[in-house]
Amino acid sequence: MVSTRRASRGGVGAAAGSDSASAAPSHLTANGDTHVDDARTPLRQRAGKSTRSGGSNSVPPIEIPTSEGATRRSSSRSSSGSRRRSNANANVNADHDSSSSFPLSSPSPPAHADLTLTTLEGAVVEQNEYERSGEEEDATTVPVPIARPLTAPTPAAAAAAAAAAASVAAEPRGYLTAKGLQTLKEYKYVSGFTGHTDKYIMIPLWNWCLQFVPLWMAPNLLTVWSLTCGVSCYFLFHYYSPDFITSAPSWVFYLTSFLMFFYLILDGLDGKQARRTDSSSPLGQLFDHGCDSICCFLCGIFMSSCLGVDDPRQAFIVLVLHILPFYTSNWEEYCTGVMRFGIIGITEGQLFICILLALTGWIGVDAWSSTILLPKWLVDSVAPQWLAPHLHAPLARRQILIVLGCVGVVYQVLSSMMSVWEYHSLHRQKRAAEKIYNKAKRMFAHYIFFMLLAAAWIWAPSPFVWQRRRIILMTVGLLFGLQVSRLIISRVTSDPYPFGFLNVLFVPYVALIVNCWTGEVAFPSYPVAVGYLVLVFLAYAHFVVTTINQICNSLHIKCFRITPKVAAAQ
What is the DSSP letter of 300? Predict the structure, then answer.
């Protein structure tokens, strides 16, 4: 009895050719007879003539319904000069029933077949005839890969993919997002109430000085010159009074008083020069406030030398009196959209510093160390009960100035908080949708936590605090400058405030505080504190340079050169 795999060597081809036009479902047995399938036979074979060069014998194609509803077709072709199978294969084939075709349980068609898999989606996969080289072997299984259709994307999907790729490629590299840069172009600075000092004294003075500024000078150059004045004052006191106790020469106080007043003049001229030359841009506000934040904490440090503050805790309070009002003013603008100036604001504070420096050059630093006794009736009527006993004792003059400064700062902070609350109450629905009030509360709490950590560092019982207080104050000042700069950026661009980045940057900060409180058992504080100060400075400088370049590229302007509006638009 001959198996179906040997049917191609007999007269099967002729029988298959004669029955190819028959419509009845049938298949061929090993004897060449046509067997009609009954209802129990799910396998259907139809005779079809297979044309092949080099021989006339063929095996009819087979259609096998798959589980996915697809159809497998198999047609075997005889090859000329093919060898006989081995006796073992012949014995296995002889055991098959003469009336059987390919068994239904077979997972794959014969090895000599060209296989075609048609899936539901219409994809076609062809498997060519098993190739033999050398001694021919029996191949009983041919793997049939399951292929999915490779359909071409629709024009809409292709356009969406191209737009996504373009947006990724166009995403700027830096601290500002593409959405933030677009928001920056639409930002408009809004100033609130102008104090009486600005209205009646400084604005007329600024207008008079503006005539001496050439038209070609960029407003940001005036801002840089104002920053140079503040930095010069710091280094003068750092050179002549490194420990905050040594009295500097009187000319240093007079010079720094003039430099601070010149800083005040330049700080007001940059905005007027921008409007005069029609070169106003959001970069001007960011650049101006960034330089102001640096001068703010530098002034808070060298004013301790002006007053001869020998206690690092008092020096820290003097620094807080400068940086806390500046932060709350910008935080209030973030919440309300308006930079508000009170009756006693920034201009009045800067004029007070100029007068204090000139007065110290006249009376000397030691004059602030002399003590005075406050009237008892004044202390009892003004001071709270928990503070009155401390004020009855003789106080140094610088301590009285510090107390008065604390009263003014507390008033300014509470005023900003009340202004934010009133604005939120009037625009509750709008602010709730934008969730700005929740963000503002989190930002203010984050900054207060930073200030509490700074106080914990300066109050630590460590000799490092008393010997290297300037390093601590500079570190706190640079961290303040970085935070307020990121706050201003979040305001004008609507980008999220970088809590995560600042928290990571605070890790060494917390480690230094804990180390000072534990007696510096983990590591020496001085080299680590210097390294951390350098790290904060580099992080701040990288942020400033990268952000300026991003804004200039987005607005098509130059930072220190006036760009005509027509050229920028083109």
Answer: H
What's the per-residue H, E or C state across 224-248? HHHHHHHHHHHHHHHHHCCCCCCCC
The DSSP secondary-structure symbol of 423 reads: H
Measured distance between the N- and C-terminal CA atoms of the chain, rounded to whole angstroms: 90
Token readout for 537 is 């400075």
Kindly report the backbone phi and psi dihedral angles of residue 507, in degrees, each rounded to the nearest multiple of 5, phi listed first.
-60, -50
- Which amino acid would we find at residue 233? C
pLDDT given for residue 151 in this prediction: 56
What average pLDDT score do residues 539-555 get? Answer: 94
> Would you state the pLDDT for residue 169?
46
Cα angle for residues 290, 320, 252 (degrees, 5° grid): 75
Beta strands in 477-558 (DSSP E): none
107-160: pLDDT as tens digits:
444 444 444 444 444 444 444 444 444 444 444 445 554 545 545 567 777 777
Q: Are 276 and 206 in contact (CB under 8 A)?
A: no
Cβ atoms within 10 A of the Cβ of 430, count? 10
User: Model confidence at 422, in pLDDT bands (50, 70, 90)?
Assistant: confident
Do the beta carbons of residue 116 and residue 145 sit within 8 Å?
no
**For 494, left (φ over 0), alpha (ψ -120 to 50), or beta?**
left
In this prediction, residues 315-324 reach a mean pLDDT of 94
CB-based contact 300:319 (threshold 8 Å): yes
Q: What does the chain come to in residues?
A: 570
Mean predicted lDDT score pLDDT of the chain: 76
**339: β partners:** 191
In this prediction, residue 430 carries a pLDDT of 66
3-class DSSP string for 468-491: CHHHHHHHHHHHHHHHHHHHHHHH
Give the Cα separation of 342 and 346 in Å (integer).
Answer: 9
Place of tokens 């005040």: 264
Which residue shows structure tokens 């504190």? 529
Which residues have C-beta within 8 Å of that of residue 243, sequence separation ≥ 6? Answer: none
- DSSP letter at 520 equals S
> Across residues 539-548, what is the average pLDDT?
95
Tokens representing 198? 């600005």
- What are the structural domains of the chain? 4-127 (no CATH), 183-569 (1.20.120.1760)
* pLDDT per residue as tens digits for the range 5-21: 333 334 434 333 334 33
The runs of H, that is alpha helices, within 73-154 are 87-94
pLDDT digits (tens, 9 = 90+) for 82-108: 444 444 444 444 444 444 444 444 444
Identify which of 112, 345, 350, 147 has the alpha carbon closest to the alpha carbon of residue 230: 350
Which residues make beta-bridge pairs with 72?
64, 117
Annotated active-site residue 289? The verdict is yes
SS3 label, residue 449: helix
B/e letters for 56-78, b = 16+ CB within 10 Å, e = fewer, are ebbbbbbebeeeeeeebbbbbbb
Catalytic residue among 27, 112, 289, 424: 289
Q: Is the pLDDT of residue 55 over 80?
A: no
Pick from 501, 477, 475: nearest CA to 490: 501
Please enumerate, as own/partner, the contacts of 363-367 that have beta carbons within 8 Å and a separation of 24 or more.
Answer: 364/247, 364/250, 365/247, 365/248, 365/305, 365/306, 365/307, 365/308, 366/247, 366/308, 367/397
pLDDT (0 to 100) of residue 339: 79
